[in-house]
Amino acid sequence: MVGMESSTNGVQIAIMGMRGSGKTTFLLNLVNVLREEGIRVKGILSLAVFEDGRKTAIELVDLATDARRVFARLAKEARSTLQFGDWAFFEETINWGNVCVSRIGFTDVLVIDEIGPLELDLGYGFQAGLDQLVDGHYRVGILSIRPKCEEALLSRFPGIKVYSLAEWTSEDLINEIFRIAFI
């Protein structure tokens, strides 16, 4: 296991890509590689759910427990008081995700998938994830964003390193994260 000690000055990384570019797939692969190395990973992932070849829902996964809850469904198929774009989000799952993230304490790697306009522009969504990123109780804090959120993210976290999935292979980006965070 890579030696880790508590730090409030963790490395902050944003994985950036368009919708459907593979941000969550990359993070899932990264989580698996990190765990194989004995590195503690906690946070949340937003996994797509496909039915008959089309994305119909998003599940939120607590990486500490692997518990899952439906986070969003296509707006035309579900009703919610919180609709954003094509999706109807479930506030009870957002609240659950915030509770999961707020309980993390120190971890080697913090993952928050995904931060977007809901959090950066509206002050809603996974605010506990942003709070954890600010608190720095991790060796590496990694979140995913879309390009349209880069400016808002950089204004809030000026030291964050932004990596575009369009410019890296998955293997090279995993190696880069190990290089800057664990070597």
Description:
This protein has 183 residues and is α/β, with parallel strands linked by helices. It has a domain at 11-46 and 60-67 and 105-182: Rossmann fold, CATH 3.40.50.300. Helices cover 32% and strands 31% of the residues. The protein is built from six helices and nine strands; from the N terminus they run βαβββββαβααβαβα. It has helices at residues 23-36, 91-102, 117-120, 127-135, 150-156, 170-182; strands spanning 11-16, 41-51, 54-62, 68-74, 82-84, 87-89, 107-112, 138-145, 161-164. A nine-stranded mixed sheet has the order 5-6-4-3-2-7-8-1-9, sandwiched between helices. The radius of gyration is 16 Å and the shape is globular. The two termini are 12 Å apart. The model is unreliable at 1-8 (pLDDT under 50).
Number of strands: 9
CATH topology of one domain: Rossmann fold
> Which value, in Å, is the CA radius of gyration?
16 Å
Relevant CATH superfamily of one domain: P-loop containing nucleotide triphosphate hydrolases
Main pleated-sheet profile: 9 strands, mixed
| N to C succession of SSEs | EHEEEEEHEHHEHEH
The gross shape turns out to be globular
**Range of helix content:** 25-40%
How is the largest sheet built, in terms of strand order? 5-6-4-3-2-7-8-1-9
Number of helices: 6
Strand content: 25-35%
Structural class: alpha/beta
From the N-terminal CA to the C-terminal CA, the straight-line distance is: 12 Å
Low-confidence stretches: 1-8
CATH class of one domain: Alpha Beta
Give the mean pLDDT: 90
Q: Which architecture of one domain does the CATH hierarchy give at level 2?
A: 3-Layer(aba) Sandwich
